[in-house]
Fold:
Amino acid sequence: MNFNKNNFQIITLLIAALSLIVTIFSVVDNTRLFLDNEIILAFATALVASLSATYVLSIIRRINPKQYIYISYTGQDKDTALLVSQILSEQFKRLSKYRFEIITVDSIPFGEDMSATMQKYIEKSDIVIVLVSENYITSEWCYNEFLSIANLNKRIIPIVLNSYSDLSRLPKDISNIKALSLSDCTSDKDFEEQLLRLAKDLIRQRKD
Structure:
C-alpha cells in the first residue's frame, strides 16, 4: 500500500477513534486499562485531541487549498516585485479566509538549480503575475521564463510598469488581456490602492 495523504488521514482517524473508545471505557466503567492510575487516561485524552486536530486541519486544507501565485520579473525591478508581493500578501490575510501563497525566484532555496526550480514554481502556480517593463522585455532570462509561462497556458495577469504598448512586444502578445497599470502611480498611496484592487478581484474570483 502506498503511504499517501489519504492513507495517513484514515490511520489518524482510526487511532483517534481507538483512543476515544479507551477514554470513554475508562471513564464510564471506572476501569483501569494497562495501568492502575490516571496516566493512561491523560495520555489517551491528549492523543485524541492532537490526532483529531491533525485530521481536522487536513480536511480544512483540502477544502481551502492554497492558490499559488508566481511573480515573474527582472532583477532591475526586484524592489517593485518585493513590494507587490508584500502588499498583496498583507491584503490577502486581511481581507480573505482563502489561502494564497506568492512565490518568486527569490523563494528558491540556496543550492538549488535556478532554472529547474523556477520551472517547478511556474508549473505549480495557479496564476502568474508578470511585471512588464522595458527591462523585462529586453532580458534574455525573462524572455525564456515568459516562454515557459506561455507554453504552459498559465493564467497571466500583467502588471505594467511603463507603457501598455509593451505588452505587444512580449514573445506572446498578451495585449488583449486586462492588465493592471502602475505607470501612472504618483505616490505610495496610489500604488497600494491599485494593488488593493487586484487583491480584491482575485479574492472575488475565488468566491465565484
The first strand starts at residue 67 and ends at 72. The beta strands are 67-72, 100-103, 127-132, 155-160, 180-181.
